[in-house]
Amino acid sequence: MPAGQSIEQRTQALLPFVDCINQYLEIGLLQGWYVKGYNGLSIEVKSQLGGSHDPYQLAFIRGILEIGNHLHEEDHLSIIRPTVSTSRMLLRG
Question: How far apart are CA 29 and CA 33, in angstroms?
């Protein structure tokens, strides 16, 4: 939490985003990855998972592939990936 911002202030700053998600989100996906365990996998195992040494990249790709399984011919997929600085601005309100 940014210095000087109360939990109530943070909650109020995030409510517009929560309302937007509640109104427009049709599919939500939550993933949990054990990064230390992934980093400990052998190169051979990682190559079978796509070859990336970055567990976050694998999680992102896996998420996109899963969402794609739920799309219809006429559907569109928009991807918004905020940067760290954008996320900090959003939390400050």
Answer: 13
Structural contact between residues 49 and 58, judged by C-beta atoms closer than 8 angstroms: yes
Query: pLDDT tens across 22-69, in order?
Result: 888 777 777 888 999 999 999 999 998 888 888 888 888 888 888 888
Angle at 2 (CA atoms; ends 89, 79), nearest 5 degrees: 35
Which residues have C-beta within 8 Å of that of residue 77, sequence separation ≥ 6? 64, 67, 68, 71
Can you tell me the distance from the alpha carbon of 23 to that of 49, in angstroms, rounded to the nearest whole number? 35
Cα 78 to its chain centre, rounded Å, is: 13
